[in-house]
Specification:
The protein is of the alpha/beta class. The protein has two domains: about 1-265, 3-Layer(aba) Sandwich (UDP-N-acetylmuramoyl-L-alanine:D-glutamate ligase), CATH 3.40.1190; about 275-395, Rossmann fold (3-Layer(aba) Sandwich), CATH 3.40.50.450. It contains 13 helices and 20 strands. The strands form four sheets. Strands 6-4-1-10-11-12-13-14-15 form a nine-stranded mixed beta sheet, with helices on both faces. It has a five-stranded parallel beta sheet with strand order 17-16-18-19-20, with helices on both faces. A hairpin with a 5-residue loop joins strand 13 and strand 14 (about 190-195). The longest helix has 18 residues, at about 235-250. The two termini are about 40 Å apart.
Length: about 400
């Protein structure tokens, strides 16, 4: 049996459209539903989500255990990589006593309504909070063998350190963890085992990228392969990365069997660094928002970005054009926003193609006729913002 504890929440997204009841614990439970293991789900059960809990039981055989509340928590996303609006506000959410969970294999997620006090032979902990992640042992949780999965932002908050090696050293020492998996966004992850040399694990490409819940799936798959099957942490993390790619590309759960994962997901990313040129109009509020959002997301993934708006600014064409193109010459890939068919952006695409620089383009509500030249010259065009961002990061590899 695998015990999973954490939140079950409503999630909605504007682009692409999405509205369902999952949350970290619910999604992780569904991810493992076809692996032949009994899944025990411990969470705070909201009456407003009764249909979602019923679906977990009838479709996947997963019964939820835990305290009952009247109203559930909702996450609303503009896009699948964005910061969600949480209702109620996190500081207004009623806190419950820790849910107590014991088991041979336990996956614990951080949650907004309180925490879970776990005792396991092999435990996996995913703090699940960019704002207030909590240490594993703080609430009395124990594990004979502990693996911690976290991203860089969570690691910085928990350790007070900025460098990846320092983050991991802190978690291994202060938490007495046996394994730390530090996720590095589109660049994969680093697996740190106490007393061993850190090992990189790649990301795997998918044609489409849906990010809501991707970390949940990674943690679920790692728990199954490392916690239940006893695989080496490096192999488990690699399989978890493949599982994440499968989910991001299909939005489909439960996960397929291991051999299918290995067969269907095999295009590993090999980062080599570089700089992204952000070609886009910025002449009204909507255009400016897209530029700011894309740049912020790339910088958050520690990708170097040249943005004409930020790095050159506005001015006469005989000044800014030269500086923009000098910046483009230094970049290894172009991310172009084709919405609106801006002449300057189209020119920059042509310049990049002539220079042999790969171009990834976002085109929403653009006529097929207007995409003939970009598509015909090898530019890769996407309608989804997050997919375009990730394809750009991977194009550096």
């Amino acid at each position: 049996m695998i015990a999973i504890t954490g939140g079950v929440y409503r999630e909605s997204c504007i682009e692409p459209p999405w509205d369902d009841i999952f949350g970290s614990a619910g999604r992780a439970a569904v991810a493992l539903a076809n692996y032949g293991e009994k899944i025990a789900l411990y969470t705070v059960r909201a009456q407003t989500f009764s249909a979602g809990f019923k679906n977990l039981a009838t479709a996947f055989g997963i019964e939820a255990l835990g305290p009952d509340v009247a109203e559930g928590i909702e996450f609303e996303y503009m896009h699948s990589l964005g910061t969600p609006r949480i209702t109620p506000r996190p500081d207004a959410i009623r806190q419950h006593s820790p849910i107590e969970v014991e088991g041979e294999v336990v996956l614990r997620f951080g949650m907004l309504e309180g925490s879970a006090k776990v005792a396991g032979r092999r435990a996996v902990y995913d703090p699940q909070s960019a704002f207030d992640p909590r240490p594993f042992h703080e609430n009395g949780s124990t594990a004979e063998t502990l693996a911690v999965i976290l991203n860089r932002l969570e690691g910085r908050h928990l350790s007070g350190c900025s460098k990846p090696a320092e983050i991991v050293e802190h978690i291994l020492a202060e938490w007495n963890a046996d394994v730390v998996v530090l996720k590095l966004g589109g660049s994969g992850a680093m697996v740190h085992i106490r007393g061993e040399t850190p090992v990189p694990v790649p990301s795997y490409r998918s044609e489409n990228v849906w990010k809501i819940g991707s970390g949940d799936v990674f943690s679920a798959a790692f728990t199954y392969f490392w916690g239940k099957l006893g695989r080496h942490a490096e192999e488990a993390a690699d399989l978890a990365s493949r599982a994440t790619s499968y989910y991001c590309g299909t939005r489909s759960l439960p996960l397929p069997p291991e051999q299918e994962l290995r067969k269907q997901v095999s295009d590993a990313v090999k980062p080599r660094g570089g700089k992204v040129y952000l070609a886009a109009p910025f002449f009204n509020l909507a255009e400016r928002w897209v530029v700011e959002e894309v740049r912020e997301q790339l910088l958050h993934m520690e990708v170097e970005v040249f943005s004409p708006l930020h790095d050159v600014g506005v001015g006469p064409g005989d000044v800014v054009a030269k500086e923009d193109l000098e910046g483009l010459d230094e970049c290894s890939v172009v991310l172009a926003i084709l919405n609106g068919g801006d002449a300057g952006t189209v020119f920059e695409i042509g310049y990049a193609v002539a220079k042999g620089i790969p171009v990834i383009a976002l085109a929403q509500n653009v006529r097929a006729e207007d995409l003939k030249m970009p598509v015909g010259t090898g530019c890769r065009v996407y309608e989804d913002l997050v997919t375009a961002i990730y394809q750009t990061v991977w194009a550096e590899a």
